[in-house]
Amino acid sequence: MIEFQQLRKVYESGGQQVAALNGIDLKINKGEIFGVIGFSGAGKSSLIRCVNLLERPTSGHVIVDGHDLTSLSVKEVRNVKKNIGMIFQHFNLLNSKTVFANVAMPLTLVNTPKDQIKKRVHELLEFVGLADKADNYPDQLSGGQKQRIGIARALATQPSILLCDEATSALDPQTTSSILQLLKKINKEYNITILIITHEMSVIREICDRVAVIEDGKIIEEGTVFDVFSSPTTSTARNFVSTVMNDQLPESIKELIQQHAGMQKIFRINFVGNKAGQPLLSEISKKFDIHINVLFGNITELQGTPFGNLIVEFQGDEKEIARTLTYIQEKDISIKEVNEHAS
Amino acid sequence: MLANTDQIIEALIETIQMVTFSLLFSTLLGLPLGILLVVTRKGHLLQNLPVFNILNGIINIFRSVPFIILLVALIPVTRLIVGTSIGTAAAIVPLVFYAGPYIARLVENSLLEVDPGVLEAAEAMGATPWQVISKFLLPEALSSLVLALTIATIGLVGATAMAGAVGAGGIGDLAITYGYQRFDEITMMITVAILVVIVQGLQSLGNFTAKKIRRR
C-alpha cells in the first residue's frame, strides 16, 4: 500500500547537510493502522510528508498503491493526493470559511456538482458527530471538534489512505481518546489504511496494529504493537514502552534489590494472553519447596491481549529454585533474573 | 480673494476622482505584485528567486523616491499614457506608480500572516497553485487586505494634495494655494476639516468591513 525504499531526505542548513531521513525501508499494508513513533527531530514528520510529497525525498522511492510517486509528474501527483487524506496537529482549517465550506473544500477543488457536495458534506459531518455545526466557524469550536472537522475534510474525497501528523498532540487525554476511537471506526468501516506519526506511546498502544520506532532518520525497530511492547529490543523503544506500560520498578524496591545484591533471587515474569489467567504462583508454591515474595506487578492490555508483568523474589534452596525456573520455562512463560541494576 | 463653495465642491470631486481611479489602478498593479512577492520567495508555492529578487528591488526603488519627485520624473511617461502631463487625469499616472508598489508591500505583509499550515493542507489536498492562492491564501487574508487597502487609500488622499503641482486640483491643492500661499485661513481650515472627515470616514469604513469579514 505504502512502501518506502531507501528513502533519504537531506536538508541544507547554514551550509551544513542534515539528513532527516537516512535510508528508510518500510512497508505499510493495506487496511492496517501503522504507527511511527520517535522523539522530536527523529525524522517522523519528514517521513509522513514524503507520502504525499509535501516534501520531496532527496533520494529513494515512495510507492503508493503501486505508483512510484517520485517518478510522477506534478499533475499526476496532484491526482494521487486526492486518494490520500491528511490531518494535522494544529488542524489547519480555514478560519475564514464555515465548517461546511471547510469540509467541502477538497470537493470544490475538483469541481464536484453543488448538490453532490451538499450530500457528501452532511454525510461526513454526521459521521464525525458534528452535523449541527455546519454553519459555525472553526474558531467557535473546541480543539477536539476542530480535529473532527479536519477528519471530515480529509475523508471528503473518499481516500484509501489517511495520514495523521501528530493529530492528537494538541488535545487533552480524553479528547485524544475520542479522536482515536473515531480513527479506529474509520479504519474499520471504510477499510482506510492509516499512518500515524506521534511521540505518544499511548496513541500507538490504543489503536495501532504495527509500529516502527524512528531515530536519527532510521527505523531502529519495527513489529506488531504486541511484540514491540512486550519485548522491545532497543533502548529508545524500551523508553517509549515504559512511558505507558508502567513496568519500571518503584525506587524503593530498586533500593531494596541493590542492598541485598547477590543475596536474593529476584525474577521478572511476563505473562502473555491466556497464560495471564493461570494461577502460576500458587501452583509453584505448592509444587516446590520455595517461598514467593511478590515485589511488584501490573497487567496491561495490548491489542485486546492481557500482558502481565510481575517481579518476584524466590526464597529457598538453590536447587529447588532452579527446578522451579525450569518448570516455569517449560510452560512457555518468560522469566528473567533481575540484576542489581533492576533492569 | 476667498475660495467659494463651488470651488470647494469642485476640488472635492477632483480628489474623489483621483483617489478612486488611482486606487483602482494601483490595486490592479499592487495586488498581483504582492501575491508574486509572496509565492516566489524561498520555500513558497512557486519559488523563483530571480523573479522575487527583481520584483523586490524594483518595488524598493519606487518606494524610496519621494512622491513630488516621482510626479515630475514621470512626466514623459504620463504624456505617453494620458497624452498630457497636466490635470486630474495626468496626476493619476504618478499616483499609481506611487501607490502600486506601496500596495504590493502591504499585500505581501497581509499574505505572509496567513497560517502556513493552511497552505500545507491545501497542498495536501492536491490544490493547484492558482487554487491555493484564490481559495486559501486570499480568503484567509481578506480581512487584513481590506485594512491594508484602507491604509493605501488614506495615503493616496495625502498624495493627491501634492498632485496640485501638475495642476491636478483637489482639496489638498486648494488648501495649499488658497490657504497657505494666499493666507486664506478660513479656506485652509475648511479644507483641512474636509480632509479629516474623509480620512476618518475611510478608516471607519475599512475597520467596519474588515471586522465584518472576520466575523468575530
Automatic annotation (TrEMBL), chain B:
Residues 12-207 form the ABC transmembrane type-1 domain. Keywords: Cell membrane, Membrane, Transmembrane, Transmembrane helix, Transport. Belongs to the binding-protein-dependent transport system permease family. CysTW subfamily. CDD domains: TM_PBP2. This is ABC transporter permease. It is a multi-pass membrane protein. It is found in: Cell membrane. One of its GO terms (cellular component) is plasma membrane. Coiled coil: none annotated. Its main location: membrane. GO terms for biological process: D-methionine transmembrane transport. InterPro entries: AA_ABC_Transporter_Permease, MetI-like, MetI-like_sf. The chain crosses the membrane at residues 20-39, 51-75, 81-100, 145-166, 186-206.
